[in-house]
Amino acid sequence: MHSLIVVAHPDPGSLTHSVAQRIAQAITAPGSGHSAELADLVAEGFDPRFTMADQALFLKKAAAPADVASEQQRIDRAQALVIVYPIYWWSFPALLKGWIDRVFAQGWAYEETNDAKVVKKLRHLRVHLVGIGGANEGTYMRHGYAPAMKTQIDHGIFDYCGAEVHSSCLMLPADADSAAAHLDTAHRIGASIFAPRPATTQRQTCA
Predict the structure, then answer these.
(1) What is the pTM for the complete model shown?
(2) Could you tell me the residue range of the domain that residue 10 belongs to?
(3) Could you state, in chain order, the average pLDDT of each consecutive group of 10 residues for the chain (207 residues)?
(4) Which of 38, 57, 184, 192 gives a 20 to 30 Å CA spacing to 49?
(5) How many structural domains compose the chain?
(6) CATH code, 101
């Protein structure tokens, strides 16, 4: 089986990139029979701006722009989508949010019918989310971050398209003292990407 690992961080030497690479290594370990593609949105120069071309696609008046169609094809080749991202202002980085805005388009990710129903078109896709944040667990829990992100991302984006979130993890804090433990966790995440889905999925902190 094949995974697409999407990462959005400007520094290739960052913990975010190291976590994504460790997940890929675990997925593709000898004997696993699995493959992985790493999509570095910064290095690839993906344009996150939602333009009139994207609006025309939303209104079903035009085909997907070439860069959007290319991203959709990459996801179509995968059975699992892994998103590894630093937490900026309690959310996705703007580049990653723009990737979602443009790529998860009507007609491909979902379809709004004339009778106001939504057809979920990504039911085949497993999603794994790995957020890396600078604050400690107490700060995140005190402000209700975990349930807020579950509502915004797990439900608001992926459930709307029918893609199941199989795991959702926060790596806290993102400092030098925690890096080794986070990389070990990344290996465990990668090794479990194609494991059976647990009965419930909750956004949780990862040691």
Answers:
(1) 0.93
(2) 2-206
(3) 97 97 97 97 98 97 98 98 95 97 98 92 97 88 88 94 94 89 96 76 55
(4) 38
(5) 1
(6) 3.40.50.360
